[in-house]
TrEMBL record:
Entry annotated with the keyword Glycoprotein: no
Record lineage: Bacteria, Bacillati, Bacillota, Bacilli, Bacillales
PANTHER family linked: CBS DOMAIN-CONTAINING PROTEIN, CBS DOMAIN-CONTAINING PROTEIN CBSX3, MITOCHONDRIAL
Organism in which the protein naturally occurs: Paenibacillus arenilitoris
Record key words, sorted: CBS domain
CDD domains, per database record: CBS_pair_HRP1_like
Protein name: CBS domain-containing protein
Domain CBS per the UniProt entry, residue ranges: 8-64, 72-129
Pfam families according to UniProt: CBS
Length: 143
């Protein structure tokens, strides 16, 4: 059975609490990403998404110099590198999330995105079901 260690991204773009929301927005643009793990050293302490920047940052009238602390999500679902790909897909579907930080011994070692499951044609059905469930949930939230 495949584990997430075999398909996760290990070249993660990260940031620290000292960074501000403008710096995170620039990193997202430069790397074409919408998700940045926030770390102290290698320890995962939370994440910031592009949506966090918009909703908790700019729409709340915070300036670009506002601390990451104002927009961070601290209670983050994560997995270990020995999690199976089908377990990860199940978590993504159940929790309505597209990305999971991979943490071993308290340290961030990678990120598993829903696309990692689908693009590599591993458990494509589970990835498709997870994405479908996430999309349905997002669609329902709009109405």
């Amino acid at each position: 059975m495949k584990t997430v260690k075999e398909i996760m991204s290990t070249d993660c773009v990260t940031a620290a609490l000292q960074d501000n929301i403008y710096e995170l927005a620039v990193k997202m643009k430069q790397h074409d990403i919408g998700f940045i793990p926030i770390v102290e050293g290698k320890k995962l302490i939370g994440v910031v998404t592009d949506r966090d920047l918009v909703i908790r940052g700019y729409a709340a009238k915070h300036s670009g110099s506002t601390s990451v602390e104002e927009v961070i999500t601290r209670d983050v679902e994560s997995i270990t590198s020995d999690t199976t790909t089908d377990e990860a897909a199940g978590i993504m579907a159940a929790k309505q999330i597209r990305r999971l930080p991979v943490v071993d011994n308290g340290e961030l070692i990678g990120v598993l995105a829903i696309g990692d499951l689908a693009v590599r044609e591993i458990f494509v059905n589970e990835a498709g079901e997870a994405l479908s469930a996430i999309s349905e949930h997002e669609h329902a939230a709009v109405h």
